[in-house]
Amino acid sequence: MNDQIIKEGKTTAIIAYLSMIGTVIAIFMNSDSENTFARFHIRQAFGIFLTFFALGFLVSFLNSWPASIGFYIFIIVLWGYGITSAFQGTFTPVPLLGKQFQKWFTFIQ
C-alpha cells in the first residue's frame, strides 16, 4: 500500500481506537479525505466497540467472575491488536472478527 496513504491516515486510525466517541470523531475526520487506511481501522474499532457492548450485555446476565474476566481479556486483546496495527501502519484485521467487520460496516466511508 502507498506509504503516503498510511502516513495521512495514521492519526485518524489511532483516534478511532481511543473510545466510541473517538470512533465517531474519526469517522468525521475521514469524511473529506476518505483515506483507505483510516477507513480500515475505523471499521475495526467500530466493530470492537460494538462487540464490547453486545457481549458485555450478554455476560452481565451470567453474573460470573470467570465469564467477565474472559470477556475483558477478549476485548483487550482485540483492542490491543487493532491499535498496535494502526501504530505500525499495517492493514491487519483483528483476530476472529476483523474480516467480518470490514464486510459488515461498509457504510463507514
Spatial extent as radius of gyration: 14 Å
Order of helices and strands: HHHHH
Uncertain stretches = none
Quote the beta fraction: under 5%
How would you characterize the largest beta sheet? none
- Category from helices, strands and their pairing: mainly alpha
Shape: elongated
* Mean of all residue-level pLDDT scores: 92
Counting DSSP H or I runs of 4 or more residues, the number of helices is 5
Helix coverage percent:
over 70%
What is the CA-CA span between the terminal residues?
18 Å
Number of strands: 0
Provide structural commentary.
There is one protein chain. The protein is mainly α. It is built from five helices and no strands. Helix 1 runs parallel beside helix 3. The longest helix is centred in the middle third of the chain and has 27 residues, at 36-62. The radius of gyration is 14 Å and the shape is elongated. The protein starts with a helix and ends in a 5-residue tail after the last helix.
